[in-house]
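As the work plan foresaw, our protein records have gained a C-alpha cell line. A representative record is set out beneath this paragraph:
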Amino acid sequence: MKKGYLDYGVIGNCQTAALVSKRGSIDWLCFPEFDSPSIFAKLLDSNIGGSFGFEVGDEFRFEQSYFRDTNILNTKFLSEAAGFEVFDFMPRYKTGAGEEYYLPAEIYRYIRVLYGKPRIKIIYYPAFNYAREQVEHSIEDDHIKTRSVISEANSIYLYTSLDKKGILAGDSMEISGDEFLLLTYNQKLIQIDIERVYLEYSRTKVYWLNWVNRSKRYSKYNKELIRSLLILKLMSFQTTGAVLAALTTSIPESPGSVRNWDYRFCWLRDASMLIETLISMGHQGSARRFLLFIKRVLKYKSDSFQIMYGINGERSLTEEEMPHLEGFLGSKPVRIGNAAYNQKQNDSLGYLMDVIYQYYKYFPGTLDEIEDMWEIVKNMVHTVSVEWRNPDQGIWEFRTREQHFVFSKVMCWVTLDRAVKIADNFQKYETGLRWRKLADEIREEVLKLGWKESIQSFSQSYENHEFDSSVLLMEAYGFLPADNPMYVKTVISMRDNLLNDGLMYRYKNADDFGNPDTAFTISTFWLIRALYVIGNKEEAESMFIEILSHSNHLGLFSEDLDFKTKEQFGNFPQAYSHLALINTVKLFALELERSKFVRP
C-alpha cells in the first residue's frame, strides 16, 4: 500500500508556489519567488524545516480537492461533532485591460465552519533561509511580524481574524464562523478583513475559470488534462517568462538515494517542451513571454547557449549542499543550485528551435522582433554545426562522462530541420539549402552508427548497445515516420527491455550513481505514444489508464515512480510528466476525431 509521501496539493500565482499536505500543512514555500530561500521546508526536514498548518483532534478525518478548474485548494477537516474547511490560494488576476496582473507573494487561508464548533491550534513555525536563520515574532497592530534574528529586513507578516497571542502560544481555540489567515511577504497598506479575503478569493477563482475556459477540451481524459494544464501554468514565472522544471529541490529519485537535485530553474529542454504544449492548447501568451526571456538572456550575437538558466536569467547556478537538513525521508544531501548549468548537452537547442518555428507560425510579430529571433536562429545553427560531431553529456545529464548520444544527434537534426523551414518561410532558400545539407549528413550518420542490429534498436550512444527511452521520440520530432521498420523494431525492443511492471526505466545501464532503480514517469508516457503510433493502440491506452492511477490523490505527478509500490519520488510536481500526459490525451483525441470522418 502506498504511503503517499508526495500527497501534496500545490497552490501558486506564477511568482511563487507552496505545497500543502492532505492535513492542510504548508510544508514547502519559498518567498518571494520560486527560487528564493525557503521559509517553510518541513518537506526536507520534519524537525527544523518549518511549517504552517492546523492541529486538530484524532477524531477528525481529512478530504482534499481542488475547486473545479482552478488552482484553489480545498481541505476539509471532518468529525461527527464538528467540521470546517480551508481554501488555500495565492491571488492572481488581471488589474486592467492589458497584461498587468496582481500576483503578490502571499497566501490566503480562508476558513469556513461547516457544522458544530471545531477546536483547532494553528501551527505557525517559519524557518528562514532553509532553516539556517532563527526568527522572532512580535505583535504589531493588526498583524504578527516575523523577522530573522540575523537581518531585521528579512521579515514576513501574518494577518488573521484569530487571536494572535493564541496563535503564537499554540493555544487551542474554538471557531464558529468564517475566519482567515493571510501570510504575506510585504506589509499590507489596506485593511484586511473577511470581506477582503472573500473578494480576493472570488477574483482569483474567476481568473482561473476564465483561463481554463480558453483552453482546448477533449472528450476523453479531460479532467486529467485540465489539472495538468493548471499545474504547468503555475510553473511559468510571470516576471520574466521563464519556466521551471519543478517546484522543489532535493526530493530523491528513490528513497535513500543521493540523486537529489534542485529543479527550480529553467532548462531549455523542459521549458521548450512545456511551451510547445501550451501553444497547442491555446495559450500562446506563455510562449511569447518565454521567447522574450530567451531574447533577454541572449542579448548579443556573441552570447553562448547554456542548457539552463535561473528564472531571472542568471547564468551561474552554483551548487551548494545543506548538511544541517535531514533530507526528504532522510535522503541526503539537500542541494540548492545545480552544477549541470555548465554541462554540454547537444540536444537542448533542438527543442528551442522547434518552439521558435512555431513562434513564427503563430505570431506575426513586429519586424524588429522577427529579426532579433532570426539572429538567434542563425546563432543556434552555428552552434550545432560546430558541436554536433562532438560527444556530450546527453538528455540525462551524466556528470562524469561524455559520449556520442544518439538522441543528442537526433535533436541536432531537429535544430537544423526547423531552421530550414524558418529560412524557407523568409525566402532565404540558399541558406536553407546549406542547412538542409548538414541536416541530411547528421541523419545519415545516426541511421548508420545509431542503429544496432544485434539489439534490433537504436542504442543509447554510438559507443554502446544499451537501450535508452529517449530514442522513442524520433517519431514525435519527425526524424523517422511511425511506419519505418527501424522505428517499429526500436519501440518493441524498448518495451521488451525497459518496461517493468507497467512502468519504464529511462535506461538500465549504470551511470555516475549506479543503476537506476525507479521508473522515469515521462518515459512511460513516451512508450505509450510510441506504441500508439505504430498501431498497438489498445496496449497503449491500457498502459495510459494504469499510469493515471499512480498519480497522487489530486492527479499530480512527480518525476519518478517506484516499480513495486508505485510510490512517487523525485521533484514535484514535474513539468515533464504533466506535459507528456497532456500530449498523450491529445494524441488519443486526434485519432478519435479522425475516426469520425472515416466512411464505413
The chain has two domains: 8-212, 214-591. The first helix runs from residue 128 to 131. Residues 214-591 form a domain with the Glycosyltransferase fold (CATH 1.50.10.10).
